[in-house]
């Protein structure tokens, strides 16, 4: 039996990481709740490893009302204090307050564009960008598009949306396909969305 070739940027001995790579990372998201979840989790990930976030993702879902952006946008100081006591998530006050503020901005963007999805995907012309990366050395930390999107989100009032965070978000949400070309997911996604 032929061995499945994957990206070499993560440790595949951890099942949660392998499953995330094999089933989620780089798959285009068009559901606003899924997009909101990815945006918020990438903000929480700043300065931490993605495996930390993956291991706490279910806790985040419970703590943040399954990432219902309408509910999160209505959180108050009491809810912030409750979240700060939740040992299952990242208890960083700035990141928690940013998540709530970003939910409010998210709702405003939806009012303007109909969906956040419509707003978001305009930055890549409505379809994923397929980079043809042969090595991790070629993977950028940010791009001109992530800088534009970051700048626009900041101008609208979001925080924890710098160009590097936004590029990681773009990769995760499938706006950009940065699976290495030898990875089976690159070929699958290219066939379906390319």
Strand arrangement within the widest β-sheet reads 1-2
Order of helices and strands: HHHHHHHEHHEH
Overall geometry comes to: globular
Mean pLDDT, to the nearest integer, reads 95
Number of strands: 2
Structure description:
The protein has helices at residues 15-23, 32-45, 50-63, 69-73, 77-84, 93-113, 116-121, 144-155, 163-172, 184-193, and strands spanning 129-130, 176-177. With 194 residues, it is mainly alpha-helical. The chain has one domain (15-193): Endonuclease III, domain 1 (Orthogonal Bundle). A two-stranded parallel sheet has the order 1-2. Helix 2 crosses helix 3 (50-63), helix 2 (32-45) crosses helix 9 and helix 8 crosses helix 9. The longest helix is centred in the middle third of the chain and has 21 residues, at 93-113. The protein is globular. The model has no long low-confidence stretch (mean pLDDT 95).
List keywords for this structure.
194 residues; mainly alpha; Endonuclease III, domain 1; 2 strands; 56% helix
What is this structure, in a nutshell?
The chain has 194 residues and is mainly alpha-helical. The protein has helices spanning 15-23, 32-45, 50-63, 69-73, 77-84, 93-113, 116-121, 144-155, 163-172, 184-193, and strands at residues 129-130, 176-177.
How would the blueprint of this fold be written?
Layout (H helix, E strand, L loop, with lengths): L14 H9 L8 H14 L4 H14 L5 H5 L3 H8 L8 H21 L2 H6 L7 E2 L13 H12 L7 H10 L3 E2 L6 H10 L1
Parallel strand pairs: 1-2
